[in-house]
Write a structure and sequence with these properties.
Structural class: alpha+beta
CATH topology of the largest domain: Aminopeptidase
Order of helices and strands: HHEEEHEHHEEEEEHHEEEHEEHEHEHHHE
Oligomer: single chain
Bound molecules: zinc ion
CATH class of the largest domain: Alpha Beta
Shape: elongated
Distance between the termini: 9 Å
Number of strands: 17
CATH superfamily of the largest domain: Zn peptidases
CATH architecture of the largest domain: 3-Layer(aba) Sandwich
Strand content: 25-35%
Length: 417
C-alpha cells in the first residue's frame, strides 16, 4: 500500500477517539501560559503512544520526540492556548470555563484545540507507521500563541539544543474555509505584527488655565490623525500595511487637564523593509507631535509584541504542497492571497534558520459555505476565528487535519518503503 492510501485508511480508524478528545479540549480551554490541563493530556497521550515526552518547555509547552533511526529531524507544531471570549456557539460541548486567575470567560475561539488534536492524531499515525520511515519527529505543543510569546519562550528554553535542530518546521491552522480543503501561499503569507504602547507626556493642570499646561489630549488627537498619513503617504502603492490605533486613554474629568495620554498601536506589514519604514514613521511622528505641543520630554514608546512575517520558503513549500495534493487531491489545495492576521510560528523557523511550511485547513460546512458564497454573505454567515460563534465541524475537519499533517511529515522524513 502506498503512503497516501495508508494515511487515509489509518486516519479513518483513529478518528472517533480524536473527536472525543477534541470535544473535551474544546470544553476545557485555557488561556496563554495557563495550558496546564491541556499540556497534561498531551503529555499523557504522547507518552502512551511511545514518544519521549518533556513537559514544561518554555512554560507550559510540551515536546514529544521519536528518534527512529538516521534521517532528517522534522518539527511539527501545534499551539494549545485559548482566548478570553465568552462562547456563544450553542454546541453541546461549548465552553463555560472561566480563567481561574482573571475570572474571564475562556473559549477555544481560534481552533487551537483542533491543532492539538490533529497533532496527537498525526503522532499516532507516525508511530504506527514507524517501519515506513526513518528520522526524528519533534512534536512541539506550544503555549501562548495568542499573546505572541510562546514560540519565543520555547526557543529561549533551549528547544533546538535539547531536542535537535530540524530541517523543516511544519504547522497548520484551521480556518472557516470548506472542510476538506487546504490553502497556502508561497512567500509572505501572514503579516508581521508590531504592537506599540505609546505614552505621551503632557503637563497637567486646571482646565481653566490651559496656558500653564501641555495638554496630552490635544497632543494625542493631532498624533492619531497624523499617524493615518503613514499608509496613505509613506507606503508605496505596491506594498501593504495597516496602522491601527486600537486604544487611546487620557484624563478623568472635564475640568482637569491630564498628565499623559496612552495610545495602543498595531502595525501590520509583509516585509522587513516596509515594517522598518512604518515603525520608524510612527516613532518620528509621535516624537515630532510631542515637540510641536511643547512637551517637556519625548514620548515613551514600548514594543509590547513583535511577530515576524509568516513566510513560506518557496522551494520547501513545493515539496510540502506536493504531499498535500497527493493526500487530499490537487483540486483541494488552494492558493490564497496574503492574510493580515499574524502568527508566532515563524519565530521557530527563524530561530532555527530553516524553512517553514504553513497552511490553513478548512473547518466550515461546505454546503453552508457554498450557500453563503452564492449570497455574497460569507463574512456574515461563516463566523471567523476569534468570534464567539466560531465553530469548526469536529468531523471531518480532524480527518483532514491529520491527513494533511501526516502527509507533510512523511514527505520530509526518509521513506523506508
Ligand atoms: Zn488566534
Ligand atoms: Zn490561532
Amino acid at each position: 500500500m502506498g503512503a497516501v492510501s495508508w494515511i487515509n485508511s489509518r486516519v479513518a480508524s483513529i478518528n472517533a477517539d480524536l473527536v472525543e478528545l477534541y470535544r473535551d479540549l474544546h470544553a476545557h480551554p485555557e488561556l496563554s501560559f495557563a495550558e496546564h490541563r491541556t499540556a497534561g493530556i498531551v503529555a499523557r497521550r504522547a507518552r502512551a503512544l511511545g514518544f519521549e515526552v518533556t513537559e514544561g518547555v518554555g512554560g507550559t509547552g510540551v515536546v514529544a520526540r521519536l528518534v527512529n533511526g538516521a534521517g532528517p529531524v522534522v518539527l511539527l507544531r501545534a499551539d494549545m492556548d485559548a482566548l478570553p471570549v465568552r462562547e456563544q456557539t450553542g454546541l453541546s460541548y461549548a465552553s463555560t470555563a472561566v480563567d481561574p486567575a482573571s475570572g474571564e470567560p475562556v473559549m477555544h475561539a481560534c481552533g487551537h484545540d483542533m491543532h492539538t488534536a490533529c497533532l496527537l492524531g498525526t503522532l499516532d499515525a507516525l508511530m504506527e507507521a514507524r517501519a515506513r520511515w526513518s528520522g526524528t519527529v519533534v512534536a512541539v505543543f506550544q503555549p501562548a500563541e495568542e499573546v505572541g510569546r510562546g514560540a519565543r519562550a520555547m526557543v529561549e528554553d533551549g528547544l533546538f539544543e535539547r531536542f535537535g535542530k530540524p530541517e523543516i518546521v511544519l504547522a497548520q491552522h484551521v480556518l472557516p474555509i470548506p472542510v476538506g480543503t487546504v490553502a497556502t501561499r508561497s512567500g509572505a503569507f501572514l503579516a508581521a505584527n508590531d504592537s506599540l504602547r505609546i505614552t505621551l507626556h503632557g503637563r497637567g493642570g486646571h482646565g481653566s488655565r490651559p496656558e500653564t499646561t501641555v495638554d496630552p489630549i490635544v497632543m494625542a488627537a493631532a498624533t492619531v490623525l497624523r499617524l493615518q498619513t503613514i499608509v496613505s503617504r509613506e507606503v508605496a502603492a505596491a506594498d501593504q500595511a495597516v496602522v491601527t490605533i486600537g486604544s487611546l486613554h487620557a484624563g478623568v474629568k472635564e475640568n482637569i487637564i491630564a498628565d499623559e495620554a496612552v495610545l495602543g498601536v498595531s502595525v501590520r506589514t509583509y516585509s522587513a523593509e516596509v515594517r522598518d519604514r512604518v515603525v520608524e514613521a510612527v516613532r518620528r511622528i509621535v516624537c515630532a507631535e510631542a515637540e510641536a505641543s511643547g512637551a517637556d520630554r519625548p514620548p515613551t514608546i514600548e514594543l509590547q509584541m513583535r511577530l515576524p512575517v509568516t513566510a513560506n520558503d518557496p522551494v520547501a513549500l513545493e515539496k510540502t504542497r506536493g504531499a498535500l495534493s497527493a493526500a487530499l487531491g490537487v483540486e483541494r489545495v488552494l492558493d490564497i492571497a496574503a492574510f493580515p492576521a499574524s502568527e508566532d510560528v515563524g519565530i521557530l523557523a527563524e530561530a532555527a534558520g530553516v524553512p517553514l511550511s504553513f497552511w490553513f485547513f478548512g473547518g466550515a460546512d461546505p454546503a453552508k459555505f457554498a450557500a453563503a458564497e452564492q449570497n455574497g454573505t460569507v463574512e456574515q454567515d461563516i463566523p471567523m476565528n476569534h468570534s464567539p460563534f466560531f465553530a469548526p465541524l469536529a468531523e471531518p475537519t480532524i480527518d483532514c487535519g491529520v491527513t494533511a499533517l501526516t502527509a507533510a511529515a512523511f514527505a520530509w522524513l526518509d521513506s523506508n518503503r
